[in-house]
Amino acid sequence: MAEDVDGRTAPAPPTGAPLDSALPSPAARALAMAAIVVAGVCGGLIGWKVTDLQVAGDSQLWPGIVGLVGAALAAGGVAVVSVLVLRAMGEWQTIVERGDPAAARRPPRRS
User: Fold this and answer.
1) Rounded Cα gap, residues 59 and 62, in angstroms
2) Alpha helices, DSSP H, located in the chain
3) With 0-12 CB in 10 A as exposed, 13-18 as middle and 19+ as buried, what is 68?
4) Beta partners for 10?
């Protein structure tokens, strides 16, 4: 039993059943991370090359800056989509475990 700040004791957590995790599987998280990295690399390369073709001379400052901005935008966009997909996967898994796909679409009953 753990003692609280005001002297009250808090009940100990149950030790029998393991806690269910809301996290997606490690493979899904690794794939999402790989997609973010690939999108960042592709966005950076596209931004760099398009700007490099537009800039006259040997200046590499603007292509480098635009390449970094392109990488950040592409990685950020894919990160948003990845988070939404991972959340949808978790919600879908919950629906499958409960066995009632219509439960997610039904509005809650008012009493």
Assistant:
1) 7
2) 26-54, 61-98
3) middle
4) 2
Q: Look up tokens 């991972």; give the residue.
A: 86
Residue 63 to residue 55: CA distance in whole angstroms: 8
Sketch the domain layout of the chain as residue ranges. Answer: 25-99
For residues 73 and 43, give the distance between their C-alpha atoms in angstroms, rounded to a whole number: 7
Which region holds residue 71: left if phi is over 0, alpha if psi is between -120 and 50, else beta? Answer: alpha
pLDDT in tens, 36-68: 999 999 999 999 999 999 998 888 899 999 999
List the Cα angle 18/21/23 in 5-degree steps.
160
**Could you give the percent of the chain with pLDDT greater than 90?**
49
